[in-house]
Amino acid sequence: MNPLSLAGTASDVLRPQGYARAVSTPTMTQREVAQLFRAHGPMVYRRALRLLGNAADAEEAAQEVFVRVIRKGHTYEGRGVLVGWLYRLTTNYCLNLIRDRKRRAELFELHMAHRGADRPAGPADLVMLRWLLAHADSAQAEAAVYCYLDGLSYREAAELLGVSKRTVGNLLERFQAWAERQAAVADAGDGS
Questions:
Q1: Are residues 88 and 127 in the same domain?
Q2: Number of structural domains, the chain?
């Protein structure tokens, strides 16, 4: 099922106060879940597709995120924007999926097999980024995804992470230094 086809109309979208009520109760009705999916399914799908790079994996991830919303909807405390909560659930689910050992090995092999010395940035760079995210400290990886991949500001990333802008900067600085060391090791292994 392609979530992009379920965008719905404006009348299908719950009002913000409806979201807080729907998500803050231990159980959600089918109608509430369907409205939430129609309203935010496409955003969750796009987010998963961007991180996973595969439409089938993104569809599965979007479905799993909404299954988790059904199971853990009561954990949403109504603070912040519901979209931010869904965005974070999606990011965390996808990062965990990337961290799966089998997936890490496949991505690493794919990257190392296609690495070129002088090439423009392209799909291989995204594969390398995914490999780095799979191996990085989870807080650093999350900050890197928000700022480098999604282009969010430090302030926006700080809101999603629940930390200060300064902490976001520190996380990115540590991620960058670590990523440069990993790239140097990979380059040395290639004989570059």
A1: no
A2: 2
